Amino acid sequence: MRFPHGESVAIGDFENFKSGYAASGQHYMVGQVDFAKLKEWSQNEKIGIILSPGSTFLSRQASKISEMKYSAAYFLQATLR
C-alpha cells in the first residue's frame, strides 16, 4: 500500500507486517491485512492499495462462521416472537 505522510496507518493494522519505507513524502507498507481493513482503506482516496499477483484470500475459521450463523438465527428468532 501507499499513503501520504499524515494518514493514519499503523504496523498494528496488519495481520502480518512484512516491510515498509518512506520516500518523497509517501509511505509504503507490505503485509497481510484483514479484509475489513482492506475495505476501509479502499474507501480512502489518499491510500493506494496494490494486490500482488500471488495474493490469496483466506476464509475465516469454520467455528467463526458457525458462530455467526448461530447469532443470525438467534436474532431472527428473537425478532419474530
Which key terms come to mind for this protein?
81 residues, alpha+beta, three-stranded antiparallel β-sheet, 2 helices
Order of helices and strands: EEEHH
Biggest sheet, strands in spatial order? 1-3-2
Radius of gyration: 18 Å
- Derived from helix and strand composition plus strand pairing, the structural class reads alpha+beta
Helix content: 25-40%
Distance between the termini: 47 Å
Segments where pLDDT lies below 50 for 5+ residues? none
Give the count of helical stretches: 2
- Mean pLDDT across the residues is 77
What is the topological layout?
Blueprint: E1 2-4, E2 16-23, E3 26-32, H1 35-42, H2 62-80
Antiparallel strand pairs: 1-3, 2-3
Provide a brief overview of the structure.
The chain is α+β, with helices and mostly antiparallel strands and 81 residues long. The chain contains two helices and three strands; from the N terminus they run E-E-E-H-H. The protein has one domain.
Please describe what this structure looks like.
Strand 2 and strand 3 form a beta hairpin. The longest helix has 19 residues. A three-stranded antiparallel β-sheet has the order 1-3-2, with no helix packed on it. The mean pLDDT is 77. By secondary structure, it is of the alpha+beta class. It has two helices and three strands; from the N terminus they run βββαα. Helices cover 33% and strands 22% of the residues. It has one domain.
